[in-house]
Amino acid sequence: MGKIKIAVAGVGNCFSSLFQGIHYYKNKTAEDAIGLMHWDLGGYTPGDIEVVAAFDIDSRKVGRDVSEAIFAPPNCTTVFCPDIPKTGVEVRMGKVLDGISPHMADYPDSQTFVKADASEPSQEEVVEALRESGAEILVNYLPVGSEKAVRFYARCALDAGIGYINNMPVFIASDEKWASEFKERNVPIIGDDIKSQLGATITHRVLASLFKRRGVKLERTYQLNTGGNTDFLNMLNRHRLSSKKKSKTEAVQAMLPQPLPPEDIHIGPSDYVPWQKDNKIAFIRMEGKLFGDVPMNLELRLSVEDSPNSAGVAIDSIRCCKLALDRGIGGVLYSPSAYFMKHPPRQMTDDQAYQRTEDFIAGRRKD
To answer: In angstroms, rounded to a whole number, what is the distance separating the alpha carbons of residues 356 and 112?
Structure first.
């Protein structure tokens, strides 16, 4: 089937896990590959993904081979594939815009960004770099709250005529104007805000759906998360957190018969604990009533490595985007977006999204 050539904006922990995974699974077979939702997806295996361009703004990454940059500070995710050969692809200086929150200057360099002393590219220069690299898909891994920067790279993808996967909670695929433009230009897009393979939000959604199916009335709930990576540090700025909270909250509300009042649902990142590094701990509490209006409550604690947890989903979303390119399909891919993302344009139950995505992969539906 050939290679799937991707470019990435943001060489952080999530991309580090994805890039390690691409190389880790090259040495596996379908029989011994653990941790994938699909080994073969439409004829493509994980090892068919090739990184041909990358953009970042950190001096410890810009100018270095991608194989080295993924392990540079402040990245702190688990290293499960350390021996990756050089790719010949150097990380390019990206556009800063609102990609750095001002409060992060108050923390040590080891925990945050060190802006590279290099000139920022224009939109035309990024578009040209994408074209020259042969990239077919641009994968967005910018920090939460980077509203202007995410739109900048979405525009670059459109102008370059390549697919766009928006893993962050800036609403592109779920914005009608952006969605219309991707459709008009016949460019596929999957978004917004990637779900983890088995994370807090997908678990919360499944439990909310279980309450509904079993006739339990959910009256109030919270999801509190802590972590020690730059994503959690970045989100200490509550102004940058608004779209993230909206994305996570709507993902759970969509599973309920009736949305809970705002005062009865609290979902979102809660605090930064440096020593946790890339480990994320989620605390979920759900209170409701059973038969006879008898009260009950459920509490759950989930501990996962945050970045590998999203890479297992990203590796499938990339392959679905490639299938759309192969088939000449443009615009929002609604089924993969609903299955892989927290804030898709059309919310579905996880069972519906799963089945429709399987139908899309098999060619039984276009989106």
So the answer is: 40
Count of Cβ atoms closer than 10 Å to residue 18 Cβ: 27
3-state secondary structure of 227: strand
Q: pLDDT for 294-328, tens place per residue?
A: 999 999 999 999 999 999 999 999 999 999 999 99
| CB 14, CB 311: distance < 8 Å | yes
Q: Which of 151, 156, 231 is nearest to 191 (CA)?
A: 151
The C-alpha atoms of residue 235 and residue 146 are separated, in whole angstroms, by 11
Q: Is the peptide bond before 40 cis (omega within 30 degrees of 0)?
A: no
Residue 162 to residue 166: CA distance in whole angstroms? 13
pLDDT in tens, 213-229: 999 999 999 999 999 99
3-state secondary structure of 66: helix
Burial of 137 (0-12, 13-18, 19+ CB in 10 A): buried
> If we measure between CA atoms, which residue out of 125, 124, 104, 126 comes closest to residue 115?
104
- Phi, psi dihedral angles at 274 (to 5 degrees): -50, -40
Are the C-beta atoms of residues 149 and 97 closer than 8 Å to each other? yes
Are the C-beta atoms of 48 and 3 separated by less than 8 Å? yes
pTM: 0.95
**Mapping DSSP to helix (H, G, I), strand (E, B) and coil, where does residue 78 land?**
coil
Which residues, at least 6 apart from 356, have a Cβ–Cβ distance to it below 8 Å?
A: 334, 335, 338, 339, 348, 365
Look at the alpha carbons of 219, 191, 304, 227 in this order and tell me if their dihedral is positive or negative. negative
φ and ψ at residue 312, rounded to 5 degrees: -65, -25
- Rounded CA separation 249/7 (Å): 30
Name the token pair of 288. 């409701």
Q: Characterize the bridge pairing of strands 279-289 and 295-305.
A: antiparallel
* pLDDT tens track for 237-255: 888 888 889 999 999 999 9
Neighbours of 43 (CB within 10 A): 13
From CA 252, how far away is CA 206, in angstroms rounded?
Answer: 9
